[in-house]
Amino acid sequence: xxxxxxxxxxxxxxxxxxxxxxxxxxxxxxxxxxxxxxxxxxxxxxx
Length: 47
Prior knowledge:
The protein contains 1 helix and 2 strands; from the N terminus they run E-E-H. The protein is α+β, with helices and mostly antiparallel strands.
């Protein structure tokens, strides 16, 4: 999976036909990373 952050948007891209099965720990980790990406996106949009 690729996470792209541009201006005020975060884009998640996975290969066609791919899926992910994640544990609770992995989903919490993904949540934290997406929060960071969103915060970074918001910061770059302001500046």
